[in-house]
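Sample intake sheet
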Amino acid sequence: MLILLTNDDGIYAPGIAAAYHELTKLGEVHVIAPETVQSATGHGITISTPLLTQRVVVGEGETAFEGIAVEGRPADCVKLASAKLLPRQPDLVVSGINSGANVGINVLYSGTVAAAIEAAFLGLPAVALSLYLRNHIPADYARTAQLSRRVIEQVLEAGLKGGQVVSVNLPPLLPDQQPTGVRVVRQCARPWADTYEQRNDPRGRPYFWNTSVFTLGDTEDDTDVAALRDNYITVTPLHFDLTHYPMLKEWRDRPWRA
């Protein structure tokens, strides 16, 4: 199995290294990821500047591996990998492991999820991996990668097809702690309230910093937010048809005037 591994935290991020070493147990892994951090860039692509690429070595010693760094967005990496950089079309695209949860409306902002959705656009099966971070629990990417691989194996066994994408979120765990389990859940659609701090630059002009800190707030019990809050590994199938079908059905036969 040929696996394309990418992310939005950049090719030197600890999450992608941990994922690489676990995914090599499933097949041949090609790492093609952004040169720099692209968090919260969503599904942007590069069209007005060239996409520079460079083969790099990530890590040192026996754990080092080669990859291709792309001066572009996560979606660029998938598009370019599929069109030019891989020896053939991948059997699976994995994006992550992201440093931070991608649940609720974060899915719409996430470069990690965007890379996986881009793969699905191209007719490829894809999985996005994200680790929820909490200040009092050190991020254990190696263990998270092990859990991620086990979930990916089960996702493949369940029949993930080309053009399909799932978002997997993993809880932060203490060394002696186990995840509550694995739950297949829907995306929470509740809004997240942003907060901004106003400051002034040296010339007295106001500017604003987004100071919001993502938290797993109250939500319905069957959502990704609720399950991750309860220390479950969450699996959320996603799709990219944004059509609002109930409204489409209600409005289609109205007497519209040109």
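Comment: The chain has a mean pLDDT of 95. The first helix runs from residue 14 to 23.
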